[in-house]
Design a protein that fits this description.
By secondary structure, the chain is mainly β. The protein is built from one helix and nine strands. It has an eight-stranded antiparallel barrel with strand order 2-3-4-5-6-7-8-9. The longest helix is centred in the N-terminal third of the chain and has 19 residues.
Length: 137
């Protein structure tokens, strides 16, 4: 990642460190000021890991494409219905989002850290992986 200001770089490192502790269960997530059942406006849009998923109309069949609305997140074969979104950082903007994941007719609890870099990227960290998406225009 390229950063123009060292304070932004330090803040991003802090969120990434926080994400590692969050996933490992080593810290408590503040549940104050959270939004029940709603996705933060900064996350709403169409996102994809692959640049080809964002060209023209994009590839609606891309398995890395995310469509984020105020009330849910959909991708290739799964959907997420938010239960609670809590802001955990203002610089960079980051949220802990708890949701119900539905995949292949089965539902389960899911939580992840969603962080915006201030540009057109969104990084999602969960217990299995870290993925960075670009906003489709």
């Amino acid at each position: 990642m390229n950063f123009n200001h060292s304070s932004t770089a330090h803040a991003w490192v802090a969120v990434c460190s926080f994400a590692a502790m969050f996933i490992a269960g080593g810290c408590a997530i503040a549940q104050t000021g959270g939004s029940r059942g709603m996705i933060p406006p900064e996350l709403i849009g169409v996102w994809d890991i692959a640049a080809s998923g964002c060209t023209g109309q994009g590839n609606p069949d891309s398995d890395t494409r995310l469509v984020i609305t105020r009330t849910g997140i959909d991708n290739y074969e799964q959907s997420f219905k938010p239960i609670k979104a809590s802001n955990v950082s203002d610089a960079p903007r980051a949220w802990n989002i708890r949701s119900t994941l539905t995949f292949d007719g089965e539902s389960s609890g899911y939580r992840a850290l969603y962080a915006r870099d201030g540009g057109g990227r969104l990084t999602i960290v969960d217990e299995h992986r870290t993925e960075t998406y670009s906003r489709c225009k």
